[in-house]
Predict the 3D structure of the following.
Amino acid sequence: MVTDDIQAALRAMHIMAAGDLTELDQVIHPDAVNREAKAEPPDCRIQGPDGFAASARWLRSAFAELAFDVHEAVASGDLVVVHCTMSGRQVGPFVTYDAHGRVAQAFPPTGERMAVTQTHWHRMREGKIVEHWANRDDLSQGLQLRWVPPTPLYLWRMSRAKRHATRLQYAHPVR
């Protein structure tokens, strides 16, 4: 049985993948926290729809054809759990950040496709997502995108991409 909470969680994932973020406020609570944003750019760490929109823009800047193929969605109490496969093609650098919001790593685009399983957990309030966290298969993602094992050339490209991302971050600091 698909509940309203399940529909809201699935709609949020579809909106974030599709990129038309104008409807996020209909499914993301103003107090919503994305627990996965700790490795994302600082503007992704704010509460509410704006933080989730920033996360979507961050993912979509690295991955074209971003999609979530849902295998199972279940609800229990105020929790909705979605088991899915995230897929896309890496067309831009995938930049991760440390706890202080500084560039931690940058994986330059490989043009490769990936399809990795994930489980997303959503705590719901008033029919909207108020908390999100996930379990992902990051090793499979790295292998499919040819980030690992890194070749000497790719390590050099990573170093250049990190320098570039760091320069951009300091040229356009988040307020």
Remarks:
- The chain is about 30% helix and 35% strand.
- The longest helix spans residues 152-171.
- The chain has one domain: 4-171.
- The first strand starts at residue 28 and ends at 34.
